[in-house]
């Protein structure tokens, strides 16, 4: 990627210093950077002491066989003990761990003491079903407390879990069961989605008819919706039959720090899903530290809410393992943001007095589209910090979030990381960093990240290229389940000795990092590399645009031509001059080279179930090709609507 083309594109100049009060009481101060700089491994050894170890580790990192890392290898611990029991032993058994809010409005709160009993019973039940240390358990569930209980029960007995997002099909579930060779599946009859019960068990039944799933001995079914459920005698068991009658005591056994904790599949753009393997001690150390540092969690007073699904890594690290290891009180919400009305999330914030909120840019842009008046109807004054994850956040969305959700005076932390990194890697520290809307800014203390060019050379400030991680980190993936070679090829072969994240990035004049989207999404226009993210952010900065997706379509003159799909804000009309106005606006913000050749107003954009825009499909449309695989789209009819908008479409 050429440096000069990216260097002058970003024009964001706004800065937001940490609120003085937060800075004065922040969990982590600027000293952390210095101490980690001085002794990186010593810094992580110190963070590992946040946890309760059965055997304290004496060795921090074993990097004798890179890139296969071992962290804290001679230490032993139990993850569930760290997330539950130790808080009860410390006298905090009465503290709420989970405020559950069901979509239909049912709610219940579980204290740490409740969680200890429930997790112990579930662990006893799994043991009774013959699940042994090392056996894989698939979890296919809605967002209910039993999902968290099931994950912790697996961790407690050392059975790695593989959580499969409840929105995935029977096919996707079957491939994941096969690949991990799961022995038990934990599911529910269904969950509530958009005001209706939506079945889950039927997909499990279907998945288990596929070859390669024969080793599944039992399906444990939580009753959530009460809908009719087909039953395979001898295989299927109700959770309440097998768990409720178990003893509420269970002695946790300590496992080695490198014992597998979970497998989580990430689909990526090509090929079969990759089973990302995370282990115990290093993962929990970094999940716990980052949750404490980035969200400034005060467990006695904060109410924390991460809106992700537990089926994604964000849910693993920042609904389950990070917050619970820190003794946090969290909200767990089952449903969609607009059921039964578009203010539902803000109603939940008001009801529980949420202080720390962690969500995704796609959700923020959707709320912007719905209008400022909706959050304005609720009391959001409890919020003291906002987080973002999943995609680059457009500066305009960042400002909107801070203003309309945060009341204009709270820090916004834009956190960059991946399923593979296990925990946050690049993010402002809320009490330290003067935040720049749209930039994840700086690697956290103890993390080494930079931007390199095609030749693996670190770019100077102002330069652009590829994001790489240059030192191992505690919560790094250990391999791809069953495929070490693919682990090496995917992440470690592009740049010798460095982890290749697959994201384009640039460094600004201060050395802060800006993420520019997946490298497959960078466009080449007349010899210039232009990031889809930057053009999208310029479009979203226009008052008439709510959302934008930009792709490079092959073009005989310019190699690629910029083609933009935009969703207009509520009141904006699709009139004659609009397209010219938007082109001129982008030209003014980024320079004439970045002006889209075509701009198409559309009603919806194609998104994956985790909310990422599928630019590959838009490229197919822009290049008049037949559409590629649409199976991971939330709603495949979106593509037909978009195709109809094209000039010349039938
Ligand atoms: C990819 C990883 C990490 C949890 C959710 C996604 C993109 C993630 C940011 C951010 C810019 C971001 C990257 C990354 N991404 N956070 N703050 N700024 N891009 O996990 O599904 O493994 O996706 O999400 O492209 O590589 P994932």
Write the layout of secondary structure elements.
Layout: H1 3-7, H2 20-24, H3 31-38, H4 40-48, E1 61-62, E2 70-71, E3 76-77, H5 79-92, E4 96-101, E5 107-111, H6 112-128, E6 137-140, H7 145-157, E7 161-163, H8 170-180, E8 184-188, E9 190-193, E10 196-199, H9 201-207, E11 218-222, E12 236-238, H10 239-242, E13 255-256, E14 260-266, E15 274-279, H11 281-294, E16 303-306, H12 313-325, E17 329-333, H13 344-352, E18 356-359, H14 361-370, H15 373-376, E19 385-388, H16 395-405, E20 412-414, E21 449-452, E22 464-469, E23 479-480, H17 484-492, E24 499-507, E25 513-518, E26 522-525, E27 528-531, H18 532-540, E28 545-555, E29 559-568, H19 578-590, E30 598-601, H20 615-622, H21 637-645
Parallel strand pairs: 4-17, 6-7, 6-8, 7-14, 8-11, 11-12, 16-17, 16-18, 18-19, 19-20, 29-30
Antiparallel strand pairs: 1-2, 3-13, 4-5, 9-10, 14-15, 15-23, 21-22, 22-24, 24-25, 26-27, 28-29
The chain binds 5'-O-[(S)-butoxy(hydroxy)phosphoryl]adenosine.
5'-O-[(S)-butoxy(hydroxy)phosphoryl]adenosine binds at residues 266, 312-314, 389-392, 414-419, 440, 501-503, 515, 518, 610.
Binding site for Mg(2+): 540, 542, 545
GO molecular function: ligase activity
Domain AMP-dependent synthetase/ligase: 90-473
